[in-house]
Design goal:
A hairpin with a 5-residue loop joins strand 2 and strand 3. It is built from 3 helices and 3 strands. The N and C termini lie far apart (42 Å). It has a 3-stranded antiparallel β-sheet. The protein has one domain. The chain has 63 residues and is an alpha+beta fold. It is globular, with a radius of gyration of 13 Å. Keywords: DNA-binding. GO terms for molecular function: DNA binding.
């Protein structure tokens, strides 16, 4: 079964992060790096984004 890949706009929508935040976090080693899917195109493996979201700290709201 082939892995799904998410382009930057989809990653922004899923994570709620801006383009600059994504690249800044990648530089800091806090966000997965994309893979090349074409000569001038990159995308993030969906599993990598899902794993990052699952391991991201959450804040507890007021109850």
């Amino acid at each position: 079964m082939a892995e799904n890949h998410l382009r930057r706009h989809a990653v922004e929508a899923v994570t709620g992060l801006s383009r600059s935040s994504i690249y800044a976090m990648m530089d800091a080693g806090d966000f997965p790096r994309p893979v090349r899917i074409g000569k001038r195109a990159v995308a993030w493996p969906q599993s990598a984004i899902e794993a990052w979201l699952a391991n991201r700290p959450t804040s507890k709201g007021a109850e």
